[in-house]
Amino acid sequence: MLLGTVFALLVLGVGGAGPASAHAALRSTDPGDGSVLRSAPRHVTLTFTESVGLRDDSFRVLDPGGHRVRTGEAGRAEGRSDTARVTLSGELGEGTYTVAWRVVSADSHPVSGAFTFSVGKPSAGAAAVDPGPTEDPATAALHHIARYLAYLSAALLIGAAAFVALCRPPDLAPLRRPLVASWWALLASTVALLLLRAPYEAGTGPSAVLDVSALGDTASTRPGALLLARLALLVPVAFLLARAARRHIRTPVSAAAGVALAVGLALTWAAAEHASAGIQVPVAMTSSVLHLLATAVWLGGLVALLLTLRGTTDAATVARFSRAAFVSVTVLVVTGVYQSWRGLGSWQALTGTTYGRLLLAKLAAVAVLLAAAAVSRRWTAALADAGTAVRERGHALERVPARVGGPPGPREAAPEPSESAPPAGTAVDAHRRGLRRSVIAEATVAAVVLGITTVLTSTVPGRAAAEAARSAPAGGVLPASVTTIPFEIGASGRGTVQITLDPGRTGDNAVQAVVFGPDGSLAAVPELRLSFTLPDQDVGPIDAELVDRGGYWSANSLTLPLPGTWTMRTTVRVSEIDQVSESRRIRIER
């Protein structure tokens, strides 16, 4: 059964996870994506929706010919953890430059992308640049397997230990081997995660685990430090297990130490995943720890109960687990509702995002799990009643006085069992078999729930996905709308305005406008106005409040509420008394 549970979890996890999704959305870049600057910038700065970790190769800046530009070490802008900045050491000539970047989200997943800016004027043809691998398939697969094994082994270790402490089974022998096996599995999976961390972040192959210097770099990062903390916690866990196995004791001191170690292990997950970034981090961390522990007590306890049901488990042990499972379910419901609200952010995200659809699948599996748990509780109650009947019959037999020197009299004869009712011992065995079958079903569904949960930790939360869409990421996720509008400058000739609407969809958009003179060089104008009208819906005009940035004009936020064919009207004031207006129709998608 244990191997079947592991197999089901891995099939669901590996089959459904796909590439790990990063959760830090790029909010803005300086210089802006596609901007044309009059002079070369001194820095390149990225701002994200959450804190990010930096790598040695977080930035690659390439000139118009595709050659790497000399840069300084990656750092922060104004000490803010949600920024990444690099100093441009060399002088940049005229043309289009490409910035390829790669950072690590606060929830431990790598994220990368690329954007461009131009100095003087755009190059005739910018070199195509690969922003770098998102992830190596082999490394990603091994990393996913190690993560799922770590989840499962931690659930079995904490849950089986909690079963011993809370349910007090009369015989610990069936649980010793699973406790030891789950400890070793957690140790092995954590070591694998530590070794794979560097190639996973870099997007390189598994052979990079042999790089000792990369392992040292991993240890200095937050995900690496948390994995080392998990390994350190496993040492006192092993001591506690060995002590309990030798002396067969359950003391308050051992129980307190076990609780502290379980909380510490849960924190190594909570501090490295969704709860560590976003809104209400302290509350989210507490909720995540409680959620993980409740999952372990329930799922690991189910496996422990299955193993003990093969032996002589008494009804009292089963009843104690039933009460512990009820408390665990209550904690799971409360923390699950909070985490769902925090991750989704809106009702639309429930069906409009991958995270929301996975959450719906998890809710459906939890409903099935609760139904299986209800059946198990009925079998538990029946087993308890049958056990009570056995004890009462045993007491009745003990109260019958024995006649010395002869057969029992008519009133002293032992009570005969009813012909219509099965013997009490037979009923107990039947109820135990029924409970074992229902617990097997419950444990199988619980493994599916845990599998969906692990996939959720590698999926962009609905709230983060919505924020990423609003931020119009510059990594090329959404295409920008670029429109070039020619205009007459009287006797001077013909100029153009290049307008970039990013992402060119409904909602918030960033606007950048660059004015070029007749010779193709940047032209300074006293004023540039831009407005949008949707004639079919009688919407507008909506003014884009452009600001002169010294070489180009921009607006950080322009809201276009509806999809359709909009009319974009551009007004260029070329002198104190002359201005030119031109219109173009552009398509805005949903």
Based on CA atoms alone, the radius of gyration comes out at: 33 Å
How much β-strand is present in the residues?
A: 15-25%
| Helicity level | 40-55%
Poorly predicted sequence stretches spanning 5 or more consecutive residues: 1-22, 402-415, 418-422, 472-480
Q: Sheet bearing the most strands, described?
A: 5 strands, mixed
SSE pattern, N- to C-terminal: HEEEEEEEEHHHHHHHHHHHEEEEEEEEE
Oligomer: single chain
On the 0-100 scale, what is the average pLDDT? 75
Question: How many DSSP E strands?
Answer: 17
So what's the overall shape? elongated
How does the helix and strand content classify structurally? Answer: alpha+beta
Detailed description of the structure:
It is a single chain. The chain is elongated. By secondary structure, the protein is an alpha+beta fold. The strands form four sheets. Strands 2, 4, 5, 7 and 8 form a five-stranded mixed beta sheet that branches. A five-stranded antiparallel beta sheet has the order 9-10-11-15-14, with no helix packed on it. Helix 2 packs antiparallel against helix 6 and helix 8 packs antiparallel against helix 10. The protein has twelve helices and 17 strands.
